[in-house]
What we know:
By secondary structure, the chain is mainly alpha-helical. It has one domain (29-176). The protein has helices spanning 3-10, 13-57, 63-83, 85-104, 108-124, 126-150, 159-176. The longest helix is centred in the first third of the chain and has 45 residues, at 13-57. The protein starts with a helix and ends in a 7-residue tail after the last helix.
Amino acid sequence: MGLNDLRAFLSAPQVMMVAAAGLLLGVGSCFFGYRLFRFMLALGGFVLGAALGFVVSQGTLPAMPTIIVSLLFGLAVAYVSYFAYKVGVFLHVGAGVLILGSLFSNDNGAVILVALVLATCAVLLVRPVIIVYTGIAGGLLAGGASGLLQGSAHWSRVGLPSILLACAGILFQFWHTSNSKPR
């Protein structure tokens, strides 16, 4: 794929729609992540469970039962993530750190160790960790989507907005949330 092909792909209407959705989701997570975290846990649990159900049943069952098993696994993991809140926090933060860590490091052992430590800290210090986690993740998503919408990956159009949004979102969430469990 050449540079012109990449530019044509990135300017496609479908990519722009996904980028616009990413911008909205990123800003929402950045500023309201703590309040929306239980919903995000359930949604992430559903996706994770459905993928697990698909992997378990693929190749052993026909298409329709595979879809049913995937949906049942998704619903079960979503239920556990929502109602077993601390388990969901551990899994969500751990998976997020694993994904981000794998982008920046090739040392899988270190990435797994950091993910376990941060996921454990998230369970012990739920509110501050969730606020920082959703602020940073939302800022990165919104900044990246903003750069994509502008057709630029320059740090001033991606990195700077990401950092500013993350900081503003974290401060906003600390200011506007109480110590209670998210709804």
